[in-house]
Specification:
The protein is 45% helix and 22% strand. The chain is of the alpha/beta class. The protein has three domains: 9-119, Nucleic acid-binding proteins (OB fold (Dihydrolipoamide Acetyltransferase, E2P)), CATH 2.40.50.140; 124-281, Rossmann fold (3-Layer(aba) Sandwich); 389-430, no CATH class. It has a five-stranded mixed barrel. A five-stranded parallel beta sheet has the order 7-6-8-9-10. The longest helix has 65 residues, at 321-385.
Length: 432
């Protein structure tokens, strides 16, 4: 039998390790984009990515690690220059040493970082999309839409059979308050180059019957952060921003952020959180209705109790109230009658006085009238005695010149004609 060299798996791994860990792969500066950055046990784990020029295709990927002994210094150095911590999406320049572990495989140990090599292509592209949407005036459009009191008709955009969709439906339909929701899946590709076009197509399909839905939920379960790059698309972001229904985004994990989170009406951490948020709105409405019902019931009970108390009070009064009222009215009538009798007694003397005053007035009036008549007669006699006619009758005459009485002889001139008036006539004469 032919003898051949054989190696154990460990021996092969050791040989690979010797090939990889050499001067050519030690302390090498590398540019890459960070993905899935996480700190566990004091060490920082991540993926280092290289993408094509368009940022859509991953050309290379390697696991990276910063041991706790170097993490504090590297993080402080990076934050002092950039003002931000190490995070997914940043494009960095790091000094690495290639290592190979028999169990964990190939990885790059990071020992230093150049903070001047700052923002990665992913964040730059996102910032450009957000600025463009803001300049076009549509960035806040979907976020300003108002919700119905209880959104129960849910249109879901997700990948068919995806675990995230299953978690969403289970959480939504099996809620503890037995709230009812109508859910329909509008399938789309949630990873890769076809993501934007298929999600937009699903949005258009929902918009055809928009009156049948209260909101749209776009969900995708967790995974590598680099898998979410397909959501960093202007056309998709604009479609969500201008959508006529409120849009809920539940993509990835809590740490994952896409440009859709900036334009959607509501952003939640995960698909399950999206269901919890919708159930929470229903529970809030249910609680409000319950409080209103309790308030109505309490108010009604208080009103009924008050009415029953008044009814019982009046029922107790009914047997005696009419007789009491009659007695009071009789007493009031007797009082008024007595008062009227007293008034009549007081009026009698005053009436006698009025009768006496009437008789006195008649006598006094007749006396005064006779006196006034006698005085008028006397005045008439005096006036008659003093009249010119009476004077003429006693032998006197009146001499007039040109109609004026002559009282002095010297006032006459020779040749004047005068008229003399007697009691029984008059004559004229000439002054000689």
């Amino acid at each position: 039998m032919e003898q051949r060299e054989t190696l154990t798996l460990q021996q092969l791994q050791q040989r690979i390790n010797r090939l990889i860990t050499c001067d050519a792969t030690r302390d090498v500066w590398v540019t890459a984009e960070l993905s899935d950055v996480a700190v566990r046990g004091g060490h920082c784990y991540m993926e280092l990515l290289q993408k094509d020029q368009d940022g859509a295709v991953t050309l290379a990927k390697a696991r990276g690690i910063i041991w706790s002994s170097a993490l504090k210094g590297i993080s402080a150095k990076f934050h002092a220059v950039t003002g931000r911590p190490l995070a997914t999406g940043l494009k960095v320049m790091v000094r690495v040493t290639a290592t190979y572990h028999p169990v964990y495989g190939f990885s790059l140990q990071i020992t230093d970082i150049d903070p001047a090599y700052t923002m990665g292509d992913l964040l730059r592209r996102r910032a450009e999309i957000i600025n463009r949407l803001r300049s076009e005036g549509i960035l806040e459009q979907n976020r300003s839409l108002e919700w119905t009191a209880v959104p129960q008709r849910i249109a879901v955009i997700s990948a068919p059979g995806a675990a995230g969709y299953g978690d969403f439906v289970n959480q939504l339909l099996n809620n503890p308050h037995k709230l009812r929701f109508a859910v329909k899946l509008f399938p789309a590709v949630m990873q890769g180059d076809r993501t934007p076009s298929t999600v937009i197509a699903a949005l258009e399909a929902i918009a055809m019957d928009s009156e049948e839905w209260d909101c749209v939920v776009i969900i995708r379960g967790g995974g590598a952060t680099s898998d979410l790059a397909s959501f960093e698309d202007y056309d998709l972001a604009a479609a969500v921003a201008m959508y006529p229904l409120p849009v809920v985004i539940g993509i990835g994990h809590e740490r994952d952020i896409t440009v859709l989170d900036y334009v959607a009406n509501m952003r939640v951490k995960t698909p399950t959180a999206a269901a919890e948020w919708l159930v929470g709105r229903g529970e809030s409405a249910l609680s409000t209705l319950r409080d209103l019902g309790n308030a109505i019931a309490l108010g009604s009970s208080e009103k009924i109790a008050g009415a029953m108390h008044r009814l019982a009070y009046f029922e107790g009064l009914l047997p005696v109230l009419p007789m009491q009222t009659l007695e009071r009215r009789k007493a009031q009538l007797l009082t008024v009658t007595s008062q009227l009798g007293a008034v009549a007694g007081r009026i009698g003397p005053h009436m006698a006085r009025l009768d006496a005053m009437a008789a006195s007035l008649l006598t006094a009036t007749a006396t005064i009238t006779d006196r006034r008549r006698a005085r008028l007669d006397a005045l008439e006699q005096i006036a008659s005695a003093l009249s010119p006619a009476a004077t003429l009758a006693r032998g006197y005459s009146i001499t007039r010149v040109d109609g004026h009485a002559v009282t002095r002889a010297e006032s006459l001139s020779r040749g004047q004609t005068v008229t003399t008036i007697l009691a029984d006539g008059s004559f004229t004469s000439t002054v000689n």
